[in-house]
Every structure is written in structure tokens, then in C-alpha cells.
Design a protein that fits this description.
Layout: E1 18-30, E2 36-49, E3 53-57, H1 64-71, E4 79-84, E5 87-88, H2 94-104, E6 105-109, H3 120-129, H4 135-148, H5 164-176, E7 182-186, H6 194-209, E8 214-217, H7 221-224, E9 229-234, E10 237-243
Parallel strand pairs: 3-8, 3-9, 6-7, 7-8
Antiparallel strand pairs: 1-2, 1-4, 4-5, 9-10
Helix pairs in contact: 3-4, 3-5, 4-5, 5-6
């Protein structure tokens, strides 16, 4: 199976070729009395080149989930600058930040996060529904993406009628429906057996092969081995930043 991206955003680029730039990012959680409870990120600066396949790793409490939440515009940094596709989103108001997140970012979660009452087509359509895209366009795009991830024979099924791997494929299709500039995956194979996990990772590699920017948060070294770049965090700071050559995908 070959996955092709329909994204027009991936064809555009900022002048410096970066999809994300972080400068001095801090994330501090405060106690009710105003004192510091946790300094989750302690001054992270990071560039993510368009088309990169990157892993974020680190022990529990290192800040990797917080970093993904900031990068994914799910949380706002306490201090610092974050340029997403050339736009500073660090100080955006919630409503505008939500719109930017919906247009530019795709998410894939360990628990799939599919809505059980909806069919997989309807699940994939949900992000477009929030953008008031006409129904026939939503359905056409959802069916196209479900076909691309190998689920054309499961149309009309609800999540409970699918295997774990099929549910994750549906979640991947949903993450792509808005043509994101960057795709985030949080432990995407954590609930899958090894064979199904391998299939999902090959799907990621096919997406990356089309030019998609992918950031995976993982504790699994076998996943990071497949990435071009590995960021390791400790105590809210980047401990190491390794770039490497990865063998091209075999078809």
C-alpha cells in the first residue's frame, strides 16, 4: 500500500524552510499561592525542518509530553517564542489558537480517541465539521483518506467493529483531513501488538516519504531508530539532539 498526501500546505514553505521554531520556551505550573510547582520546560530552543521525521524521548517527568503539547498548540508556554509555520502562536488568544491548531496540526494518540457512536467516515470528518466544510466535501475527503490508509473495505463501520490497528489507521486518516503542516503522534503503537505496530510505523514512513513532517513522542528505542532526528529531554532541557541517515523505505 502506498499513501499519498493531498496536502497543499506541505508544498509551501517559510523562507527558512522551518515548520516550527522555539526560542527559550519555558512552561511553569504554579501552585495556588503563586509559587512554582513544576518547571516542566526550562528554556527549550528548537528548530524543526519541514519534512523531518523526528522522535522526542526522555524519562518520565523529563518534559517530553509538555513539549509536544506546546508544539501542538494544546498548551501555551509561560515564556518564550514559538513560530508555527512562520506565525508566532505563543501569545495567541484561545479562540485564534484553536483555529490555527485545527488548520495546521494533526494528532495521533495512543488511545485512538475515536468517537464510538460515529462511523469511521464520520470520525474522520469531525475536524472539517468544525470548519463548516460542506458535507459532500467532508465525506469525499474522508473516504479518500480512509482508502489511502487501507480501510476502504471498512466504510460504515464503527470503532468497536475494528481491530486496534484499524482504529489507529482511522485515527491517522482523521489527523490528515485538514492537510496539516505537522503531524504529532503520542506513543502511537503503545496499545498495539508488535505486528500491528510495525504496520503503523510503515504507514508513518510512507507518509514521511510524501514530505509530511512527523514528530513522535515515544519511549521505544526501536521507534526512534527509524527517525531522522532524535531529541532527548531531561529535567525540562534538551540533553541531546542527534541527526542520522535512515535507510529509505523499501516497497
Amino acid at each position: 500500500m502506498t499513501v499519498t498526501s493531498s496536502s497543499s500546505n506541505n508544498a509551501t514553505s517559510t523562507a527558512n524552510g522551518l515548520v516550527a521554531e522555539l526560542r527559550g520556551i519555558e512552561k511553569i505550573y504554579f501552585k495556588p499561592d503563586g509559587s512554582v510547582a513544576v518547571r516542566a520546560l526550562a528554556g527549550v530552543s528548537l528548530d524543526i525542518q519541514r519534512g523531518t521525521y523526528m522522535a522526542i524521548m526522555g524519562p518520565s517527568g523529563s518534559g517530553k509530553s509538555t513539549l509536544m503539547n506546546v508544539l501542538g498548540c494544546l498548551d501555551r508556554p509561560t515564556r518564550g517564542v514559538y513560530l508555527l509555520d512562520g506565525t508566532n502562536v505563543a501569545d495567541m488568544e484561545d479562540e485564534l489558537l484553536s483555529r490555527v491548531r485545527g488548520r495546521k496540526i494533526g494528532f495521533i494518540f495512543q488511545a485512538f480517541n475515536l468517537i464510538p457512536q460515529l462511523t469511521i467516515e464520520e470520525n474522520v470528518e469531525v475536524p472539517l465539521l468544525y470548519q463548516s466544510v460542506p458535507r459532500h466535501i467532508r465525506r469525499e475527503k474522508a473516504q479518500y483518506l480512509l482508502e489511502r490508509v487501507g480501510l476502504s473495505d471498512r466504510l460504515g463501520h464503527r470503532p468497536s467493529e475494528l481491530s486496534g490497528g484499524q482504529q489507529q489507521r482511522a485515527a491517522i486518516a482523521r489527523s490528515l483531513v485538514n492537510d496539516p503542516v505537522i503531524l504529532f503522534a503520542d506513543e502511537p503503537t503503545g496499545n498495539l501488538d508488535s505486528k500491528t505496530g510495525e504496520e503503523i510505523l510503515r504507514l508513518f514512513e510512507e507518509l514521511h516519504d510524501t514530505g509530511m513532517t512527523i514528530v513522535v513522542v515515544t519511549h521505544d528505542e526501536s521507534i526512534s531508530d527509524r527517525c531522522q532526528r532524535v531529541i532527548r529531554l531531561r529535567d525540562g532541557l534538551i540533553e541531546s539532539d542527534e541527526s542520522k541517515t535512515v535507510a529509505p523505505l523499501k516497497t
